[in-house]
Amino acid sequence: ARARTRTRVEPLSWYPRAFALRDALTEAQCEAVLRATRARVRRSTVVDSVTGESKVDPIRTSKQTFLNRDEEVVREIYDALSAVTMLPWTHNEDMQVLEYRVGEKYDAHEDVGAEDSLSGRELSKDGGKRVATVLLYLEEPEAGGETAFPDSEWIDPKMAEGTSWSKCAEHRVAMKPRRGDGLIFWSVDPNGKIDHRALHVGCPVVAGVKWTATVWVHAEPYRWQKP
User: Fold this and answer.
1) What's the predicted TM-score (pTM) here?
2) 25 located within any domain
3) Residue of 118, 163, 119, 173 whose CA lies nearest to 143
4) What 3-state DSSP class applies to 23?
């Protein structure tokens, strides 16, 4: 069935290119992903910039698991996201699902490794560079847990007004997690070069629990052979 488009895209920043995705997921989709993953999460890892291997690191204290992109609910979500990324679902990695409890966070990092680093080569060896990241909010915390960009500019500074931000998200472009919403940002500029202003942080959860799904989008098909 053809994926229906219901998401509203709201530009937040041009530096980096970041857009809020309002109503990116239905309640049923949020629940389906959570049901499939709640009991499976384990301590999150990062890619070592020297060895290219996955490792546990104090910069990232969440728990994680993955859902295969061939699973029905994931394909349904990915087909709809193609209307935003303008790329087919075959460019997406498997969906990473994360749980953040009080105090858990992901310190400032980039989703695309440095050009000359082993981690950069590891992340780009299949499908080319990660060009964009989509974050989907499955369950919102009571406070904190924003996604924030330390080196960023709001399109309109007034966009930050009227929202209660945690200290981590103040005075920078940020997205407050709301169940069913999403955020897309581009890790490269329009010429395909790494945009270091896409450096971002998952702010500590202050109260409650946050569940998110991460979708990394590559420049070329990822682990895909045409049938």
Assistant:
1) 0.89
2) yes
3) 163
4) coil
